[in-house]
Amino acid sequence: MILIAGPCVIENENVLEEAADYLTNAIEGEDINFYFKASAVKDNRTKKENYSGIGMEKGVSMLLDVKRRWGVKITTDFHTDIDIMRYGGFVDLIQIPAYLAQQTSMIKAAAGMNKPIHIKKPQFLGPIEASQPVKKYRDFGSKNDVILTDRGTMFGYNQTIFDPRHIPIMLDSGANYVLADVTHPNKNYPGDVFENIVVLAKSAIVAGASGIFIETHPNCNEALCDGKTMLPLEHIEGFLEEVYSLWRRENEITT
Fold it and tell me: pTM surpassing 0.90?
């Protein structure tokens, strides 16, 4: 199972260290292909005064320290083709945010890095159209793995839904793996965040997803970005126990 997980944005060393500890302990001994994720820059905040990250140079350096100390693979969001060319060589997976997945210059730069790419399906694209950035990446000549994640789909104003029926459609997109983002679609949705996230994750796995994208934080109430949609770190172990055991059963059924 593929797992991309970590805090929404890099805040400080303490948050990164606590998240790395929790996550590596939770997956120890399991067949999980894990990428530690935290955004060095969040360039799509709604207000000027909102925290937008620590900067690419410092953020990538902090992620490399996590990689060295915990022996994990790392990824972060990229927002320009220049940043991909400057910093893409330091990460194990180049992540293209949903809002930027159609940017030709970024796809081209990522294709030239000889690295696997993680494309978040834009909320404004349907599951069939999710093949467009994947095809563009291939057309630039890259044969590296493509992870395509369903970020959710706009359902009118101010509401994003996750439809598990999208997973098998996106599996025909040309991507090597399809994941589900189980945190962002919880924005403005009623109910317990943990229960909602578990339901979305299980639905995705049964629908054929290769894994899960999830953002997590040691204290969501004090998080500087997306605190209401992230899963508290204290629930990560229980979450992974449920979802990974289901993935194992589904995998055994299909092999």
Answer: yes
